[in-house]
Amino acid sequence: MKRLLLITFLTFAYTANAQEVKILTLKDAITYALENKSDAKKARLKVENSEYQIQAVRAGALPKISANGSLTYNPILQTTFLDAGSFGGEPGTTIQATFGQKWISTAGVSLTQNLYDQSVFIGLKAAKTTREFYQINEQLTEEQVIERVANNYYQVYVRRQNLTVLDSTFINTTKVKNIIRGRYDNGLAKKIDLDRIIVKLSNIKTQRQQVLNAVQIQENALKFYMGMPIESKIDIPQAAFEVTPSAFSEVPNTETRTEFLLMKKQEQLLEFQKKSVIAGYYPSLSLSAGYNYIGQGPKMPWGAKPSDGVYWSDFSSIGLNLKVPIFSGFETRSKVRQADVQLRSVKEDLIDTKLSLDLAYANAKTQIDNSIITIENQKGNAQLAQDVLKNTKNNYLQGLASLTDLLDAENAFTEAQNNYTSAILDYKLAEIQLIKSKGELKSLLNN
Known about the structure:
Elements (H helix, E strand, L loop, with lengths): L1 H19 E3 L2 H11 L1 H21 L5 E10 L5 E5 L10 E5 L4 E14 L1 H68 L5 H36 L6 E3 L22 H21 L5 E14 L13 E13 L7 H67 L5 H35 L10
Parallel strand pairs: 1-6
Antiparallel strand pairs: 2-5, 3-4, 5-7, 7-8
Helix pairs in contact: 2-4, 3-4, 4-5, 4-6, 4-8, 6-7, 7-8
Pfam family, one: OEP
Organism: Flavobacterium frigoris
Subcellular location: Cell outer membrane
């Protein structure tokens, strides 16, 4: 009974552990990254924040209404000296008059409204362009996330392929070791041959551990670029990579690339910045209005009545405020020239960016062509190395080849397989760059 419970528990634990492993296709990895990677999330937050920026700028064109209140106590009232003749007294004499009250309290509402301010109107246009800038930036960030995930995904795949090659080599070498041991036990093989094959197996185990560590490190890098917890377990399914010549008949228009479009938006923003500075030359007109209620007397006005000597009255005002710039010490002119230099600088960046994108496409095209040739060569080389290993093994068993020849053939076969795998990796990485140069990285989500 206890044994049955133990088996049941181990089976459940194994099943639970297996369920924790996430099978990842390239599409799954990219989808997960776009939903969970911090870079993609922050890009979406910037788009959201741009809406609030527009609202903040729009506030400059809307009326501002505020309430105000104050309570003032004057321990010593201001006095002045006046001619008594003005108040029916004897001309030429002076009287001392006191102005104001000990307590003054006011409460009111004020309103201001921009009627004409060129910088506000330009700011509204710039804010909308800022939103478009962050929308393009979000798209560029997603493409960067896709590129990093795809590159690391293929590198993990190749590392695992190297591990598979070593495992296969270990199995084959173990079979040879068993054959040699049997022949040694029968006096048909030398002790040195058995020792050499044991050393070979030990070296393979060491190489396997190194590759296993490299696989783990590469998987951790992939999970990082996906925004996945490092402790998560993933499994990349075995799949044959499709290696086909790509169509190069149509050179992509680099001016439609996200990087170029983002810089164009930056150029527009700098143009608005220059116009905003130029707006400093224009006059501005605003409306102001206010309504206030004031109480004055020898006592605190709150709750007091005229019988207490406290009197309340209201007053209001409406005005137009015109501001005409005349001379700012050449500050505005300097800022306009600075904005113009920034604008000319970004235009140079646009030219350089276009050249860089054209270069990336040309390099990707060349790398694809070279990789296809290399893959064909390495594929044939791996097949030939396999045939050589098979024949050498047969010859060794028949005493027609030495153990050195067999080990050399085995090493050559392992190297040929790894070279073939590396050639496929080079092709896939170049393919990503080619897809990127066409502005079609999101097409990887359809695979």
